[in-house]
Amino acid sequence: MFFKGRPYITGALPSPEPTIQELEHRQIAYQAACEGIVLLENHNQTLPLQPGRIALYGSGASRTVKGGTGSGEVNERYTVNILQGLENAGFTISTKRWIEDFEKEYHQSRVDYALKKAKTNVLDPTAIIDVMKDPPMLPSGRLIDEKDILDSKTDTAIYVVARQAGEGTDKKLDNEEFHLTWTEKENLHILARNYAHTILVINSGSQMDLGKPEDLQVGALLYYCQQGEEGGNALADLLTGKVTPSAKLTGTWLNAYEDLPFGEEYSYLNGDTHHAIYKEGIFVGYRYFDTFEVPCRYPFGYGLSYTDFEIDCLEMNVFQKKVQIRVRVTNTGTRPGKEVVQFYVSCPQGNLDKEYQRLVDFVKTRTLEPGESQILLLQAPFKQLASYHTRKAAWILEEGTYVLRVGNCSAHTQVGGLLINEKTQTLINGRNLCMAKEPVTELFAPKEKVQARLNRQILEARKEGVPTMLVPALPARGICYHRPKMDFGADVMKILNSLSVKEKIEVLVGAGYETSLQAKYIASFASVGKTTDKLWKKKIPGVNLSDGPAGLRIARAAAVRKNGLLKTSEFTMSFMEFLPEAFKSFMLVNPKKDKVLYQHVTAFPVGCALAQSWNQALCHQVGRALGGEMNAYLVTYWLAPAMNIQKNPLCGRNFEYYSEDPIVSGKIASAVVKGVQTIPGTYAVIKHFVANNQESDRTQSDSIVDERPLREIYCLGFQYCVQDAHPAAVMSSYNRLNGLYTANDRQLLTDLLRAEWGFDGIVMTDWYATGKGLASNVDCIKAGNDLIMPGTWPAKQQIYKALKEHRLSDYDLRLSAARVIDELIHSNVARRFLAENKESRFEPLRKDQ
Ligand code: BGC
User: Which CATH superfamily is domain 38-243 in?
Assistant: First the structure.
């Protein structure tokens, strides 16, 4: 491609026709959606259904929410909503009048909202951000009337409740975001009175309060979550039984928000968004509900099927530094299906309080036909049974009996083995890191009660002859917190040594957004940032970064004007649709004037939905598909997976996050990262490191958390993924951690991430996380946060000044620059356009300079 006679390179296509890749990825998105929808209730065999006439109501029927808002959005070719999905599967929707009325109300609500937002001053970034923080809500539609019911001529109704949420703000407890609206409740009562079967579908990125279970008169309940572009088809195929549900919750569903420990203090609720004190300690999610025996609505790991499975524990084994359990899963029902086997361990209560049980591994079966069995191996390294002893700064395996349990849900397990540790063993000796200034006063666990419960189970298990083994003597590992070495290949050092100080700084500060084509250009239209493209001559390519986790956030179409101005067909964040018209027509493509190029991508299920599959092989496939799209459209860094813990159901970004449990989060992320990185030079960026669990005022909030929960809950998933999948990059978060911005925290980014976990990639900031009143640009480089994104001119100035004034060492600058160069020169872009034996397609530009 050329503008002003200069070449730029793009993967965008001249034709809008779907490619084979796009069609294949749609299939993967469908598969993932089929395995991500959780069946929560199914009474009197309401499901599966025969396709036929069906009454369909609710905001999510025609306006199915495929994913959340903000940087997690995706612009796919088209999404199959629930209405279309049902029609595709052969249903006749007999409530079109209700749906048409809903559509009118929906359009009016958008017009009203747009009018309100049209006054936004587009030159004021805070005003723009305010639009993002106050997204339009979906209306509930009108009350169902007698005519709707009569005309529907069916005994079965589906009601779809939809909610939208996204980054920058947390969900409200008081305006019916988290609860059902009055109309929704009324309509559900009307359905219960008038239809023999009612199916409720929850289309929200995280759990909702559905009121008292006894008030909810439904035959079946499904947690649809947000399932990307193929969700409607997947739901229909689950409803008809073409596919058997196999998803499980990755978070505990509450009976009431008030049941959550310290829920009333979350985010904006206590009026202080600047301090988030993590008083629940390690007791997050099921760890709290199980330990304190507080009833919940649906337990962690729960999900129904249309068939039944039996899980038999065959043997237990201690192998090298791991404990293993072999199980046989048999489909004892009448339909084919898949089951998820979950492996939990209850550790003895010792000097340290422990949660009642923790998940240590899980495996999903293949599709088993009725009567068919599969043998699975579940295993966990002893380190996963250890706890962090803050005073000793060590991971220890306390003496006592460890109860190993296996089941298909946290609440349905059987004891599969006992493991005896005769004396407390230290597995890792480290150093206290990232500590709170004052110890946090945490929940006091009912230790004796929990141990008594375990003792009863141990006694019972012994009577039943459950296998028992000893924990062998395990070696203790020390950690050496040395200053990171300049340990790079000759190719990196040669380039590094050829750079001036200013050029090294260029490498460390991003080159902003694409608005106009500058010099030598790799154009991934509407990527969210890029690295410098001033150093091609030195063989350092400028590469693009683009968001996730539900797909690749770029524009479907774009054009480059003769003057180099870049226009896209749309904004890649939906809130921008509501900005003033004049701004939009300036920014967007004019199809009559512009030569348009196309980049169609796939909207996969959102992070939470993907994790609900508990299917690592499938997540790997999704990751590989994403890597393929990145490569096609010349994106190098994918800003995902998002790995924060779903600490509170009100967090605006829960849809992007996998789970309340670090092992689910770590293993799913690991599978996705490995998939993305199967393509050499295509990189995943795990984010937001760490304790970024609140959206309101996120750049000002300080997460105050003790070292033990920090390590055992909030860091563990990241650690697992770093050590198992070797992601190329980590994104530090917006928030402070115990008083210090994470991007400036050397203990976090160098001592923990690199020295303890062995991470050898780059760390980048979250977008605009540095600057006045935020993290310091200079301290980023000191801490080991190598890349500042999307990059500003003051950032370069400040780093340069700090070097001159000896407030920043040349060594730290060189180290970060070397890390970034190492990745850039091995990136997909470098491999394609800078390989030694390839003619450089940028040659003509060099002459221009
Ligand atoms: C989000 C990140 C995202 C970045 C770039 C930030 O607002 O927190 O998750 O990757 O923007 O879009």
Answer: Glycoside hydrolase family 3 C-terminal domain (3.40.50.1700)
Domain map of the chain by residue range?
38-243, 302-478, 490-554+600-833
Confidence check: pLDDT of 515 > 80? no
Cα(745) to centroid(ligand 1), Å: 19
Would you state the pLDDT for residue 124? 77
CA 838 from centroid of its chain's CA atoms: 38
Residues with CB under 6 A from ligand 1: 71, 167, 528, 547, 639, 687, 766-767
- In sequence order, what DSSP letters do the residues of 777-808 get, joined into one string? HHHHHHHT--BBSS--HHHHHHHHHHHHTTSS
Residue 452 has pLDDT above 80, yes or no: yes
782: its two tokens: 């000191």
Comparing 38-243 with 490-554+600-833, is the CATH topology the same?
no
C-alpha 446 chain-centroid distance: 33
pLDDT in tens, 755-809: 999 999 999 999 999 999 999 999 999 999 999 999 999 999 999 999 999 999 9
CA of 682 to the centre of ligand 1 (A): 19
Write the pLDDT tens digit of every residue in 430-449: 999 999 999 999 999 999 99
Look at residues 180, 450, 171, 179 and name the one whose alpha carbon lies nearest to residue 289: 450
* CB-CB contact of 658 with 644 (8 Å): no
* Residue 121 pLDDT: 79
CATH class of the domain at 302-478: mainly beta
Q: Are 140 and 184 in contact (CB under 8 A)?
A: yes
Cα of 493 to ligand 1 centre, how many Å? 31
Q: Check: CB of residue 635 under 8 Å from CB of residue 626.
A: no
Ligand 1 centre from 767 Cα, in Å?
Answer: 6
Banded pLDDT at 1 (limits 50, 70, 90): low
Residue 70 Cα to ligand 1 midpoint, Å, equals 8
> Can you give the pTM of this predicted structure?
0.96
pLDDT digits (tens, 9 = 90+) for 134-173: 888 899 999 999 999 999 999 999 999 999 999 999 999 9
Number of the ligand 1 atom closest to the C-alpha atom of 168: 7
Q: Which CATH superfamily is domain 490-554+600-833 in?
A: Glycoside hydrolase, family 3, N-terminal domain (3.20.20.300)
Among 639, 656, 688, 763, which is best to mutate for testing ligand 1, by the most ligand atoms less than 8 A from CB? 639
**Element of type H or E holding 206:** none
